[in-house]
Amino acid sequence: QVQLVESGGGLVQAGGSLRLSCAASGFNIRNQIVAWFRQSPGKGREFVASISIGNGNEYADSVKGRFTISDDTFKNTVYLQMSSLEPEDTAVYFCTHRRPGEGWASWGRGTQVTVSA
């Protein structure tokens, strides 16, 4: 059974940092694209970053230079290191996965990130 569990969210002041974790089970992250999305109140879910062996790392323009996505294939876990956080980064952060050429499959329940001014 595929499962994604996000953790690491919290309350941080602007300019601070957080590291989110996405622990995956039921599939091997080596074989798929794993991504972070976020959703803030009143807005749709937006792409943040993705990682895959075949496609490398991709980032939304709004987080380039501030966020870094990485993985630990032994732990089957993907991380999102977030630095220089801004109030606009406040959102629920979700991780998801897909095989190349397919749509996003399972989603985690998300972890709340709140950045205070």
Describe this structure in words.
The strands form two sheets. Strands 2-10-9-4-5-6 form a six-stranded mixed beta sheet, with no helix packed on it. A four-stranded antiparallel beta sheet has the order 1-3-8-7, with no helix packed on it. The chain has 117 residues and is mostly beta strands. 0% of the residues lie in helices and 52% in strands. The model has no long low-confidence stretch (mean pLDDT 96). The N and C termini lie far apart (40 Å).
Keywords:
4-stranded antiparallel sheet; 6-stranded mixed sheet; mainly beta; 117 residues
Brief summary:
0% of the residues lie in helices and 52% in strands. The chain is built from no helices and ten strands.
> In this structure, how is the largest beta sheet organized?
6 strands, mixed
Number of helical regions: 0
* Helix and strand pattern: EEEEEEEEEE
What would you report as the Rg, rounded to the nearest angstrom? 13 Å
The total beta strand count reads 10
Overall form: globular
> What is the topology, as strand order, of the major beta sheet?
2-10-9-4-5-6
Report the structural category.
mainly beta
User: What would the average pLDDT be, to the nearest integer?
Assistant: 96
The helix fraction, in percent, is: under 10%
Contiguous runs where pLDDT drops below 50 for at least 5 residues: none
Strand content: over 45%
Q: What is the distance, rounded to the nearest whole angstrom, between the alpha carbons of the first and last residues? A: 40 Å
